[in-house]
């Protein structure tokens, strides 16, 4: 259970994040899921199902659901979030893209139920988030991903209370954002997902401020880390004390020094609860989720969720 200190830090962090991302939607958008399965196939002992479900009035998310064909009992589940790639959800599902990023498929082979939705305007999913009233695509994605957790909770294949999240790059920071806002995510793996804002491109936050992310970073905070209401120290604080695994390669575009600085600033929130851990690995390499790191991340999830 969160301590009073972590609860206070979480509340403050979420308020600061919403200054930039816009407000988290409430019950007014939480329509019935009305899940519909568009196609289904079985291969290599796994079932693949393309699913759509309502996330709010007039809008439906699209995702791949993959799970073992034979389950003796309900299994833990993972929301698997993709990187910046045109094919979106197809890459983690193993249907294209880079083999090192087929983590939804690999985790399903290890016995998890995995759900991989498209981020707004990737894969098969097209939506104008600003016409829907959002201040950022980031907040729209957080809401969709929370609805993905709602969907998993209703599946008979999923074990109650045993849902985590994993993602690389775009999916890496969205994994952390989801875990920050949704306490039902009880463990998170983020690969190449962030650095401290002051270490992002020498302190230039332009790449975070376009319409696919958070425009207020430019319009209200002038792409300046010193003017930002939150940093990734706050995001990690909002997740504490739930277990977090971070992959931060030595030559990643997200400076690994900034990752270590955020972890050092928040580690007491994890350690004080006696749970933890927050684990960081620094493989030699660039922006990747390499074969020697993924099994460690998967074992981390198994310890936390199984």
Protein model, in words:
- With 306 residues, this protein is an alpha/beta fold.
- The chain contains eight helices and nine strands.
- Strand 2 and strand 3 form a beta hairpin.
- Helix 3 crosses helix 4 and helix 4 packs across helix 6.
- The model has no long low-confidence stretch (mean pLDDT 95).
Q: What general form does the structure show?
A: globular
Going across the biggest sheet, name each strand in turn.
1-2-3-5-4-6-7-8-9
Please describe the biggest sheet, giving its number of strands, its sense, and whether it closes into a barrel.
9 strands, mixed
Alpha-carbon Rg, integer: 18 Å
Order of helices and strands: HEEEEHEHEHEHHEHEH
Distance between the termini: 18 Å
Helix share, percent: 25-40%
Keyphrases for this structure?
nine-stranded mixed beta sheet, 306 residues, alpha/beta
Could you outline the blueprint of secondary structure elements for this entry?
Layout: H1 4-21, E1 36-43, E2 46-56, E3 59-68, E4 75-81, H2 103-109, E5 113-117, H3 137-154, E6 158-168, H4 170-181, E7 185-191, H5 216-219, H6 232-239, E8 244-247, H7 256-271, E9 278-281, H8 294-305
């Amino acid at each position: 259970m969160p301590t009073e200190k972590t609860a206070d830090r979480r509340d403050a962090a979420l308020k600061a994040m919403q200054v930039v991302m816009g407000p988290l939607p409430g019950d007014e958008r939480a329509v019935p899921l009305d899940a519909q399965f568009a196609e289904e196939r079985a291969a290599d002992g796994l079932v693949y199902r393309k699913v759509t479900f309502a996330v709010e009035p007039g809008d439906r998310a699209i995702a791949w659901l993959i799970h073992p064909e034979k389950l003796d009992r309900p299994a833990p589940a993972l929301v698997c979030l993709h990187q910046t790639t045109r094919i979106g959800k197809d890459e983690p599902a193993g249907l294209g893209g880079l083999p090192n990023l087929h983590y939804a498929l690999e985790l399903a082979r290890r016995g998890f139920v995995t759900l991989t939705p498209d981020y707004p305007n990737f894969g098969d999913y097209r939506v104008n988030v600003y016409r829907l009233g959002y201040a950022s695509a980031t907040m729209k994605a957080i809401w969709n991903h929370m609805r993905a957790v709602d969907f998993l909770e209703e599946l008979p294949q999923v074990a109650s209370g045993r849902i985590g999240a994993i993602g690389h790059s775009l999916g890496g920071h969205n994994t952390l954002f989801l875990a920050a806002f949704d306490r039902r995510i009880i463990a998170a793996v983020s690969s190449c997902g962030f650095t401290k804002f002051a270490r992002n491109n020498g302190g230039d936050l332009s790449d975070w401020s376009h319409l696919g992310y958070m425009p207020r970073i430019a319009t209200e905070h002038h792409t300046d880390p010193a003017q930002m209401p939150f940093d990734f120290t706050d995001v990690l604080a909002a997740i504490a004390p739930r277990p977090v695994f971070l992959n931060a390669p030595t030559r990643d575009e997200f400076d690994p020094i900034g990752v270590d600085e955020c972890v050092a600033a928040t580690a007491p929130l994890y350690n004080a609860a006696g749970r933890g851990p927050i684990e960081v690995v620094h493989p030699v390499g660039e922006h990747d989720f390499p074969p020697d790191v993924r099994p460690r991340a998967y074992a981390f999830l198994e310890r936390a969720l199984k």
